[in-house]
Amino acid sequence: MMQLSHTWLLDENPETRFQAGAGQTYRMVRALLRNPLAVVGLVIIIGLLIVAAFAPVLAPYSPIESNLGARLLAPSADHWMGTDELGRDILSRIIHGARITLMIVLMVAVISAPIGLLVGTVAGYFGGWVDRVLMGLTDVFLSMPKLILALAFVAALGPGIENAVIAIAITAWPVYARIARAETLTFRNAEFISAIQMQGASHTRVIFRHIMPLCLSSTIVRVTLDMAGIILTAAGLGFLGLGAQPPLPEWGAMISSGRAFILDQWWVATMPGFAIVIVSLGFCLFGDGLRDVLDPRNRTR
Amino acid sequence: MKSLVLKNSSSDDVWQRRRQRSLRWLKSLGGFAATIAMTFLGLLAITFVIGRVVPIDPVLAVVGDRAPQDVYDAVRAEMGLDNPLIVQFVHYVGAVLSGDLGMAVTSQRPVAEELARVFPATLEMATLGILIGVLVGVPAGVLAAARQGSWVDQVIRVLGLAGYAIPAFWLGLVGLAFFYANLGWVGGPGRVDIFLEGLVPSVTGLLLVDSILSGDWAVFRSAWSHIILPAMILGFFSLAYIARMTRSFMLEQLSQEYVITARVKGAPERVVIWRHAFRPIRIQLVTVIGLSFAQLLEGSVMIETVFSWPGIGNYLTSALLNADMNSVLGATLVIGAVFIGVNKVSDLLYRILDPRAR
Amino acid sequence: MSLLNIENLRVSFPTEQGPVEVVKGISFELGRERLGIVGESGSGKSMTGRAILRLIDKPGIVTADKMEFDGLDLTTLPNKQMRALRGARISMVMQDPKFSLNPVIRIGDQIAEVLSFHSKLNARQRRARVLESLEAVRITDPERVYKLYPHEVSGGMGQRIMIAMMVILEPDLMIADEPTSALDVSVQAQVLDIMDDLVTRTGMGLIIISHDLNMVARYCDRILVMFNGEIVETCAASELANAKHPYTQGLLASMPTLDEHRNRLPVLDRDQLGSV
Fold first, then answer.
1. What is the pTM for the complete model shown?
2. CATH ID of C4-275, from 3.40.50.300, 3.30.70.940, 3.40.640.10, 3.30.360.10
3. Domain ranges of chain C
4. In what order do the strands lie in the sheet with C34-38?
5. How many Cα neighbours within 13 Å face the side chain of C122?
6. For chain C, which residues lie within 8 Å of any Cβ of chain B, measuring from their own Cβ?
7. Could you tell me the fold of the domain covering A108-296?
8. Which of B97, B151, B225, C46 is the most core-located residue (most Cβ within 10 A)?
């Protein structure tokens, strides 16, 4: 049996593709774990995943059912974060809200990253007028104010989580297209691409099998760094009543409903905000660390 | 004799090079104008798509679902929905260029007129915000780079992260609860205390300036106490960004050879930092500040909503809630145009100011 | 009395694998003479030059048993007095004027700065001195050059401007760190002649740091050969052909000359040198 030892992983001359891959991953993880801030970020993200997965178990109360006898209670042993205007436990709502936030973030990433990747690699690979048209379009979107654009889109599509996700995704893809194109251009004329082409591979195959995988790491870094922005935009849409609709415990919408009580019952609007800050911070820190490991060229000093 | 010939040829050379460079510059300016035109056209296309293509019934989106049939029909005819999309788009662009953004459903007044009325309030707050951002952010960034690892540096780092992770609208609410309700240090929502409203004639539309012009210090004080908190919150976000960028530009500069040259010459540290390292980045900073100002205009939408600030952002969000599509698109168009304009102007300034690009 | 006296100078940088010494305890003396320090890149010669000016930035660490300039102890001199020394009594010409001149300050103003740091001359007097110094490096139209930005002049002229800036206060010691290796071959000799001329005229001490053995042999009185952070050979420039150390011999042997035919230039055997 092979031995997954330290020396085997760090071998400068790997014998198999698997060993090379495993070694590379091992080195990356080690570099990542050496950065304490990145570890904090990772811990926060893992925490978010756990909370989202086990929300019904972790939440002490129902996030939806109202209990008018317990309206607007201050934080206490029974209700760690107090209760809202319908007597719902805020902690429980925040725990369930983690699912919504996670879903929004993942959906936006799943929609926008592939679009950006496709546009960028196609533009970079074919060059010429294809490049000019696609990048012209990308630049137009890139120079628009994102939040305003998302607002206008949701206004036209109608409020709701799905439409908020679509609107955010529409404003998020151009960055990935730019990155993927820049990356593609660096090895567009490399020998290994010509070698594959000479073997008779179709353009589609070259792009999907050989170019896209190489653009993946910088795209992933950028997506992670953008997560915080996506969370803030989604919360903003929720705050304006354009995202998740009541009674869903979306964090932005919770802040919005707490707005009326901000002067006397500060916790209603304040607590969900802390959740947003912590989770956004987690993605920022982890993204920064990931960039330093995967993309040393853009290292921040 | 020989040296004279040499001199002439070399000075001709410089002129030649200068002429070529300015030619190249004019050419790039032409390309630049074309990109701006394309970007504005793109903005129009996007608002057009949002207004006419995305909604299932664009007429309904404009008039609302409670409109009587004759209003519906009139608007439908006015929008020219029977024409092919491209013709509609050309008409739309023509209308926008002539300053016609349609009628606001709720007030039944032209959207352009309403936007002109609310825009100064936004401008006033955003300007104060960017002033805070630049006046604090730039020196902080320089200091952080000059004393890498010091407490200033750490604070800048934390602020930079906070700028990415804190929702502006939430910070506004918390600030309102704390500084207004709890401490009473600042004025509450709105632009000025209610009983002082409408006391000074609107000359510039900027209340701080108007109250100074009319010498009404009570209004000025009240307006100041109302604007300072939202402006500081906007300023905080641009400060975080500007300081972070200044810091990284400065670090790059401080590792340059000419900074060593300055030290070799015996320059005091102050001169090394502000003259030799900071001067070359002033031009880059223009772009960063422009970008930051544009983002701040965007961020003011949320802040205005929280502070009931009667600016374009508040106008946009209340139009959203009333499903007043003409107003939404008009506000989007104006904010988008200013956003693009500020960005492109700072880009242009970069080209004009850099002796190397000239 | 010697101008510069260095004993056991060490420069090290911390890395993840522990500190790495790039200068390993070198000692030498310098009078009012022209000294060449020769070595390949990474031999520590540039670090030596910068250590003398105390310009090694953190996290680099410089130690020396003795580092004296004209009787002043450079290891303990307060920063303020060190600054007064730099530019006025010790100066340094760096490799590439493209990088060593500030791109956004006019050339004349960059030179005039030295005067404003170290003298009480007024603006008009400073300007006159700058124009004089530009003429001294054989720039024929100093008035025009004064107003130019560095990107508007050629590399050769840039380096002459750099030299003008560094000699304007007639320092006692000038360090020239690869002063010609970024320049076209055609102007290298001109720049070196100008520098040599100024050095002889003002009687300053000169350290030329270079990888170019021929050039150093031609313009210097004495030569130090550095390898791997240590001085491996010290000799008079005229005695270079009799060098004893295998590294120097290797360097000499690998230089092609016009009157010979060799199909293959000898290459240094580094493994063997490491054990010397």
1. 0.83
2. 3.40.50.300
3. 4-275
4. C90-93, C173-177, C205-210, C34-38, C222-227, C230-236
5. 1
6. 53, 55, 83-88, 91-92, 94-96, 99-105, 113-114, 117-118, 140-141, 144, 148-149, 151-152, 162, 165-166
7. MetI-like fold (1.10.3720)
8. C46
